[in-house]
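Service request form, structural biology core

Requester: graduate student, group of Dr. S.
Request type: structure prediction, single chain
Budget code: on file
Notes: please return the result as structure tokens.

Sequence provided:
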Amino acid sequence: MAAPCGGPGPPAPSPAGPGSSSGAGPRVCFAAGAAGEAAEEAPGRRQGKVTVRYDRRELRKRLHLEEWILAQLTALYDCREEEIPELEIDVDELLDMESDGARSARVQEILVDCYKPTEAFVGDLLEKIRGMQKLNTPQKK
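Core staff response, request fulfilled:
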């Protein structure tokens, strides 16, 4: 078990397993040691593997879009987040399509079981994804 910051105690094993370099999850502060001091002394802050490959701004835009989609679907289906039917609106798939008409038809097809009007949601979604980049092809540096 990890000790509070600066407190005594052995470091806890990584939840991803030994030897893993996963940066996801909550940050835990362990008792000061040679490895901990070396990391704190490093000049600047290194970006994680994901943000090196993808533009951080684009990731943030995608996260905001996903949160907006979830809020809109909650309102459209008039239920709590956990009760929304299993839907997959793949933004990258929509970005690959040739026209807004094809994108609109695809989203309408996904929302076929929704009893509320979806035209406003579809229009707003298409407006929000306009100019976004696909995330499935990492940028080369």
